[in-house]
Amino acid sequence: MLGRFKNVMAMAYLYGAPAHLVVLADSGITKVEDLAGKRVAVGPAGSGAAASAQRYFTGIGMWDKIRVEYIGYSQAAAAMGDKLLDAMWVFAGFPNSSVIQAAASNKISILSLNEAGDNSQFFQENPYYAKVVIPAGTYSGVDYDVQTFQDSTIWVAGKHVKDDIVEASLKEIFSDDGLAFMVSITSTAKSMSVEDGLMGIVTPLHKGAISFWTAKGKTFTDAQTGK
What we know:
This protein is α/β, with parallel strands linked by helices. It contains nine helices and seven strands, in the order ββαβαβαβααββαααα. Helix 1 (48-59) links the parallel strand 2 and strand 3 (67-69). The model has no long low-confidence stretch (mean pLDDT 91).
């Protein structure tokens, strides 16, 4: 899929949706491999969450070993509370309301995912996923950092858009006032910053974006420059 849309150019990373793999704390499940033969809710059929779960579990050789349940987050959280599921997969920003719901009825654990990914070709085959940490204390009872990965929401523009328009748009949004306004609209925007403006981008940047980020002192990967 990378490079399929030749005229869509990246401008900036905005925010991410980290993977949460939630289990009951007393289940005895402490690592991803323990889910073999277990019931795992991955989101509704056809959803982005289900697609990411299939991509991850296939990448680590587990997709055919788990019992997949295609149900939504809230329904999965309720089923976890009734101990009808062994795990639920949530692919969303944190803190997530369904994970909070699951933690309200039972003590939960959230599995770290990166070790299994590192031991396979998952990250090499899916370079658009960026490693991230869900900090300790984000969810009740989860008093440790969770090592996971996220999908990235990327701001893009058509290749035909003039360079100065793209550059001016980035200057507006990534100014102090612009970022403050974005946070006033949605708390998800708290993760937007100049520092992380190129995180997770593995496709070519628009020329106007290259001008903007160069002025901010950024360097670029070959993928970001289209080489």
